[in-house]
Amino acid sequence: MENKKIKIGLIGLGTVGSGVFKTLSDFENVEVVKIAVKNKNKQRNIPNLDESIVTDNAYEVVNNPEIDIVVELIGGTNPAFDLIKTAIENGKHIVTANKELLAKHGEELFNFAEQHNKVVLYEAAIAGGIPIIMPIKTILAGNKINKIEAILNGTTNYILTKMDVQHSSYSDVLKEAQELGYAETDPTGDVEGFDAAYKITTLATLAFKKRVKIENVYKEGITKVRAEDMKAANDLGYKIKLIASAKLDEQGRADVRVHPMLISKKSTLAHIDYVTNAVSLTGHPLGSITLSGPGAGEFPTASSVVGDILAIVKELGTTDYLLPMMRCDHHETAEFIPVSETENKYYLSLDAKNNKGVIGNIGNICAEYNISLESIVQKNVSENNTADITVITEICKEKDMQGAVKAFETSEFINKVNSLIRVQG
Ligand code: HSE
After folding, report:
1. Atom 7 of ligand 1 has which residue's CA nearest to it?
2. What is the set of active-site residues?
3. Which candidate, 47, 43, 42, places its Cα nearest to that of 19?
4. CB distance 100 to ligand 1 below 6 Å
5. Residue 295 CA to ligand 1 centre (angstroms)
6. Tens-place pLDDT, residues 172-215
7. Nearest alpha carbon, ligand 1 atom 2
8. What are the DSSP E strand ranges found in 265-311?
């Protein structure tokens, strides 16, 4: 290969973009020749940044004939999708951290790239600095992966960890996290599970080698988790985490979801705290592994972006068909198990009247819906003559559990169903 510098165009110079720019400056074989930003006048503390290469028109990056690789770090679908497509049409390879774009338009994007014989790499889009995409495509390629359980969102993991250690409410911890800059002013994308759902959609597609459609991914956020649930879970030997999971059943049908879950304290994921992310994979012949590390942040995310850039750089000029193992060429769409048909264990917190027969009534309702109980706990009766009752069920059908919840809501013995949270099976 001739000894020329590979030319890079960056779109986005926020936290991750800055980390990528600074990290790339250590490499002699690459040169950032154009950077698109939203606001050219923003003060940036980036040493060696030549202001003359900064533009506020991202099309100056994707249309620049000198550039070999476009790195998209602005997120969102619009204008990112059009910018990437234009770059591909103009002969550029793509590195992106855009989980929303991949989840919503991955199939179209990868097909488009393939038609133009270009690659789109995205290690940074899922679990930030944890190497997971490249390993699944390469060294784990001999596996049939049938299960993923992961913590893919640092903001929610931080909030849940703080609720646990401080015994605080969700709203108090969210406020504190926003003041410290750990949570966004509008935290919806994180706390309602959108971010984790985007990530598990792409991760499951890759791991199962079948397209998972984002609209089939069941999603519940953490806003209803109460400090009381945290305490009850702890007493029963569990932690509550926002778990992104994906499973394939024996018929090859997918069950992909994001929701809070009680995780046994004996499981590795129960010990992944604060902003750390982790991905547990199970497959054959490997068995199970868990990778953990920083899921976000300037340099951890830059590590993944730069790794992808250098993978492309290494091959440019050596072959007409780059990185065959790194391409996304699965066309089969995953068949889904409807969430009502899924089977889970459940944690149920009930605010019950202090009447004779209450526990019997709970047992009867569960039996009526074909639900067997693993444990039932009533510690005391409060001054207003109500009892806080915690139930853990055995594995049962979601639709049966939803039926039982409706029956509890109309039972004369129950004041309120406080919480229903799935339990790791
Ligand atoms: N907002 C994400 C998180 C980081 O809280 O983990 C970027 O994907």
Report:
1. 296
2. 199
3. 47
4. no
5. 7
6. 999 999 999 889 999 999 999 999 999 999 999 999 999 999 99
7. 153
8. 276-284, 287-294
